[in-house]
């Protein structure tokens, strides 16, 4: 274990091309795996581009109901002026689908940044210093982890916005409620890595040399504990979109005049469906599916490439880097329940770097 | 087929109980420790939810705010005890939860436990049927994906699983409704039963609230058919999400067991491939699968909230959404806490089953 990690840190710097997180995986992947990864990346690219180009792409504003003083009309079927039709509130469906990408991106960024900062900080502290706070945090995080995240998100969005919202209120409510649900995931991973790294020889030598705790934690532990983060970030991003859409669908969405939000549009489309109006539900829904699908394809591929049990057989030896610590996508990899699964996979718990692969 | 497999495996060790009895002490100890672990989990969630909900103010102001004069509001708050220190209220809340008193709803003034008894069976029924669909679809496809690893069927099933995960449950529900209920008119749009069937079941002297059971008790096949036709779409919407998870789970674990020595040994002895897959590779893979299913209960309940809203399925999730709408946060808090208890209990039961099947879990 020790020998393996010292080789990693002592190895000469790899070329930039190999060190970029996703590029490396694309090169490592083969066949189907590569197809899924590339397809996911393309979809993510389309999503991000759309959000940046929304002002150019969208024919109307997200809160616009009339052009040149003439109202769009409500529930109009798709036409040349409105390729995706109009909603029951008289908005242009296509425009709201396009503008919705911006809201989605903001929520992802805010939610992921917040949960990374808090989760990583808590995980580092808990893993490095231990003590009673560590024990309390572990129990609390396990409790939150086992609880239906949507319910927690509902409670939190009541707390944060009181249920009704402008753009930032709504974004913060959605992002904040997602954050609390995600923190345990980052906490678990970082804590486990920290506990492992703490026992490494280089940490000990740094301490012997008189390095302060702060220096050891940030310079030695943090740098080595973050390798699984890109993977969790990807998977959490898709979950963030789904949670925001679910909140919107349950009526905790962002007001249509403040921002375009797909979940809100689907909520309003519910009664349309019963009367056979399909365009108000179909397009916002497809936007969610497209975005989540893209992100999940990337996340799943990264996960498979990192998991020694699932990696394509041919290039196993070349694989380097990430540890499959994720229990993020439900059922993605083996997850230990509260009862624990330790010892179930004899011989499979160490990857080629001698890093323990255990949730 | 697959459900039968699951059942027989779950019951297998139970019938072999005398064999495990020699280590009964270890199991009893595990049972006790695991049971005691339920309480901190519930305690933490109750505490968390209580203080979070109170940071916004008291429930009466939230429900009546703006509609009443400040004096009338203060009177109501005092009557309900919301003007006392938060800590006192918290301790009182805890002591009431300990005797299963979850408070009364503000809007309808019914005990929350009553709401559970009225709406609980509906949610249970929905989750039950969707689990059947999830097992029936997820496990065979997962086995096939593992067997054809890295070949075309595997690719197809895996993308399918990711797709099921990516489609929000309410969107899937709306699409199913649109196609099969509105356009094709094969199945009912929403609800748990049509009015006529519901009336017949209401007339039963000892009705259970589980419509399937009630329908059977009416002895009228038309009623049963009506109830079952209502469950198809919601069951599929919730079931497919879970089926995708099971598919991936089965695939990952069976790939693990397929590469073990004893599978190679069995293959070299000439055991048929299908038997190899079903018995040698699938059975050992089942234990981690059962444990993870416990964790899926949380996801299923969250999914049930969305499914019920989509299909006007009058279960706990539907009630929760209604109370959210009317800003009745006492009821919301009560239901959330109840669901937390249900999740904790389910995880306990699943862990016990897993420990029962596999002694290694117990240490």
UniProtKB/TrEMBL annotation, chain A:
<protein>
    <submittedName>
        <fullName>ABC transporter permease</fullName>
    </submittedName>
</protein>
<feature type="transmembrane region" description="Helical">
    <location>
        <begin position="104"/>
        <end position="125"/>
    </location>
</feature>
<dbReference type="InterPro" id="IPR035906">
    <property type="entry name" value="MetI-like_sf"/>
</dbReference>
<comment type="similarity">
    <text>Belongs to the binding-protein-dependent transport system permease family.</text>
</comment>
<keyword id="KW-0813">Transport</keyword>
<dbReference type="InterPro" id="IPR000515">
    <property type="entry name" value="MetI-like"/>
</dbReference>
<feature type="domain" description="ABC transmembrane type-1">
    <location>
        <begin position="101"/>
        <end position="299"/>
    </location>
</feature>
<feature type="transmembrane region" description="Helical">
    <location>
        <begin position="137"/>
        <end position="161"/>
    </location>
</feature>
<dbReference type="InterPro" id="IPR050366">
    <property type="entry name" value="BP-dependent_transpt_permease"/>
</dbReference>
<feature type="transmembrane region" description="Helical">
    <location>
        <begin position="37"/>
        <end position="58"/>
    </location>
</feature>
<keyword id="KW-0812">Transmembrane</keyword>
<dbReference type="Pfam" id="PF00528">
    <property type="entry name" value="BPD_transp_1"/>
</dbReference>
<keyword id="KW-1003">Cell membrane</keyword>
<feature type="transmembrane region" description="Helical">
    <location>
        <begin position="277"/>
        <end position="299"/>
    </location>
</feature>
<feature type="transmembrane region" description="Helical">
    <location>
        <begin position="167"/>
        <end position="187"/>
    </location>
</feature>
<keyword id="KW-0472">Membrane</keyword>
<keyword id="KW-1133">Transmembrane helix</keyword>
<feature type="transmembrane region" description="Helical">
    <location>
        <begin position="229"/>
        <end position="254"/>
    </location>
</feature>
TrEMBL record, chain B:
<keyword id="KW-0472">Membrane</keyword>
<dbReference type="InterPro" id="IPR035906">
    <property type="entry name" value="MetI-like_sf"/>
</dbReference>
<comment type="similarity">
    <text>Belongs to the binding-protein-dependent transport system permease family.</text>
</comment>
<feature type="transmembrane region" description="Helical">
    <location>
        <begin position="285"/>
        <end position="306"/>
    </location>
</feature>
<feature type="transmembrane region" description="Helical">
    <location>
        <begin position="227"/>
        <end position="250"/>
    </location>
</feature>
<keyword id="KW-1133">Transmembrane helix</keyword>
<feature type="transmembrane region" description="Helical">
    <location>
        <begin position="126"/>
        <end position="148"/>
    </location>
</feature>
<dbReference type="InterPro" id="IPR045621">
    <property type="entry name" value="BPD_transp_1_N"/>
</dbReference>
<dbReference type="Pfam" id="PF00528">
    <property type="entry name" value="BPD_transp_1"/>
</dbReference>
<keyword id="KW-1003">Cell membrane</keyword>
<keyword id="KW-0812">Transmembrane</keyword>
<feature type="transmembrane region" description="Helical">
    <location>
        <begin position="330"/>
        <end position="357"/>
    </location>
</feature>
<keyword id="KW-0813">Transport</keyword>
<dbReference type="InterPro" id="IPR000515">
    <property type="entry name" value="MetI-like"/>
</dbReference>
<feature type="transmembrane region" description="Helical">
    <location>
        <begin position="31"/>
        <end position="53"/>
    </location>
</feature>
<protein>
    <submittedName>
        <fullName>ABC transporter permease</fullName>
    </submittedName>
</protein>
<feature type="region of interest" description="Disordered">
    <location>
        <begin position="1"/>
        <end position="22"/>
    </location>
</feature>
<feature type="transmembrane region" description="Helical">
    <location>
        <begin position="160"/>
        <end position="184"/>
    </location>
</feature>
<feature type="domain" description="ABC transmembrane type-1">
    <location>
        <begin position="120"/>
        <end position="354"/>
    </location>
</feature>
<dbReference type="Pfam" id="PF19300">
    <property type="entry name" value="BPD_transp_1_N"/>
</dbReference>
């Amino acid at each position: 274990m020790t020998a393996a990690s010292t080789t990693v840190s002592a190895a000469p710097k790899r070329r930039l091309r190999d060190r970029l997180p996703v590029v490396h995986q694309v090169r490592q992947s083969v066949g189907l795996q590569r197809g899924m990864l590339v397809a996911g990346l393309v979809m993510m690219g389309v999503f991000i581009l759309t959000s940046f180009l929304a002002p150019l792409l969208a024919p109307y504003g997200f809160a616009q109901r009339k052009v040149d003083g003439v109202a769009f009309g409500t529930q109009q079927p798709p036409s040349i002026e409105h390729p995706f039709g109009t909603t029951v509130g008289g908005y242009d469906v296509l425009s709201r689908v396009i503008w919705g990408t911006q809201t989605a991106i903001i929520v992802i960024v805010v939610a992921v940044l917040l949960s990374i900062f808090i989760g990583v900080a808590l995980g580092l502290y808990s893993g490095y210093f231990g003590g009673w706070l560590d024990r309390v945090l572990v129990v609390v995080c396990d409790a939150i982890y086992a609880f239906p995240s949507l319910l927690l998100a509902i409670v939190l969005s009541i707390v944060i916005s009181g249920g009704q919202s402008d753009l930032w209120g709504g974004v913060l409510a959605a992002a904040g409620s997602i954050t609390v649900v995600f923190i345990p995931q980052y906490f678990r991973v970082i804590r486990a890595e920290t506990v492992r790294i703490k026992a490494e020889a280089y940490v000990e030598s740094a301490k012997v040399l008189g390095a302060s705790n702060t220096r050891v934690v940030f310079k030695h532990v943090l740098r080595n504990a973050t390798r699984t983060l890109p993977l969790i970030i990807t998977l959490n991003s898709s979950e963030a979109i789904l949670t925001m859409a679910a909140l919107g669908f349950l009526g905790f969405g962002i007001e249509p005049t403040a921002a375009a939000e797909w979940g809100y549009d689907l909520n309003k489309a519910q009664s349309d469906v019963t009367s056979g109006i399909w365009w108000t539900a179909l397009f916002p829904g497809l936007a969610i599916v497209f975005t989540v699908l893209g992100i999940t394809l990337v996340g799943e591929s990264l996960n498979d490439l990192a998991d020694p049990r699932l990696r394509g057989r041919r290039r196993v030896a070349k694989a380097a880097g990430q540890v499959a610590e994720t229990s993020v996508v439900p059922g993605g990899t083996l997850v230990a329940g509260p009862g624990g699964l330790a010892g179930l996979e004899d011989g499979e718990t160490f990857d080629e770097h001698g890093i323990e692969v255990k949730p | 087929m697959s459900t039968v497999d699951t059942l027989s495996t779950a019951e297998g060790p139970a019938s072999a109980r005398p064999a495990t009895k020699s280590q009964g002490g270890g199991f009893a100890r595990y049972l006790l420790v695991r049971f005691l672990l339920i309480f901190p989990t519930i305690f933490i969630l109750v505490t968390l939810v209580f203080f979070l909900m109170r940071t916004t103010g008291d429930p009466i102001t939230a429900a009546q705010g703006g509609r009443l004069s400040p004096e009338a509001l203060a009177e109501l708050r005092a009557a309900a005890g919301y003007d006392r220190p938060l800590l006192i209220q918290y301790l009182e809340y805890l002591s009431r939860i300990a005797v299963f008193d979850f408070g009364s709803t503000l809007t309808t003034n019914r005990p929350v436990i009553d709401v559970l008894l009225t709406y609980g069976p509906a949610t249970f029924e929905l989750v039950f049927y969707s689990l059947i669909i999830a097992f029936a679809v997820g496990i065979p496809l997962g086995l096939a994906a593992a067997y054809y690893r890295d070949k075309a069927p595997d690719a197809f099933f895996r993308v399918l699983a990711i797709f099921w995960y990516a489609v929000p449950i309410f969107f899937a529900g709306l699409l199913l409704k649109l196609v099969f209920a509105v356009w094709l008119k094969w199945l009912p749009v929403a609800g748990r039963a049509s009015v006529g069937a519901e009336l017949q079941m209401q007339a039963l002297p000892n009705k259970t609230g589980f419509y399937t059971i009630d329908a059977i008790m009416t002895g009228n096949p038309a009623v049963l058919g009506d109830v079952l036709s209502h469950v198809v779409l919601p069951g599929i919407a919730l079931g497919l999400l879970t089926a995708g998870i099971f598919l991936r789970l089965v695939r990952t674990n069976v790939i693990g067991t397929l590469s073990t020595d004893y599978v190679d040994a069995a293959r070299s002895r000439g055991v048929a491939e299908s038997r190899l897959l079903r018995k040698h590779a699938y059975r050992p893979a089942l234990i981690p699968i059962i444990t993870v299913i416990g964790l899926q209960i949380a996801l299923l309940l969250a999914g049930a909230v969305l499914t019920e809203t989509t299909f006007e399925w009058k279960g706990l999730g539907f009630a929760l959404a209604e109370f959210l709408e009317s800003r009745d946060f006492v009821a919301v808090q009560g239901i959330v806490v109840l669901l937390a208890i249900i999740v904790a209990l389910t995880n306990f039961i699943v862990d016990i089953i897993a420990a029962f099947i596999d002694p290694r879990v117990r240490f």
